[in-house]
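Friendly challenge for the regulars: who can give me the structure tokens for this chain first? No prize, just bragging rights.
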Amino acid sequence: MRHARESRIAAHGDDIVVTVPITLKRRQGRKEITLPGSPKAGTSSRRQVGLALTIAKAHRWRTLLETGRYGTIHELAGVLGIDNSYVARLLRLTLLAPDIIEAILDGSEPDGLSQGRLFRMPPDWEKQRRALGTSPRQ
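First reply, four minutes later:
Bragging rights claimed.
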């Protein structure tokens, strides 16, 4: 007899029944499917592309300001056609600890991490890690 957590294919009359054990997990208000034996079983192997893109955007904007391409957040926001406060909030993401950024980019960020939660992170890296329940990567 097969273990209940294994995939099976069986004939049922004229039909073929495929049984695949899955785990449904809520992440960012969405349901994700995790297969047993997949990398990082029990967690999502799909990175949060939106968070990764937001962090990349923040670093790009920071570079534009630091290189003098735009002199102020107000000027950058005007060119982008968005609100100054949004640009300022995104720029705060460039203050995240490198290991937190790396975790977001490789998909191993803590469950429930959202853009709103990142906006509320303190600038101190140790406080960020404590808030997320993580430790620096070795």
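The first helix runs from residue 49 to 66. The chain has two domains: 1-38, 47-132. Your move, everyone else.
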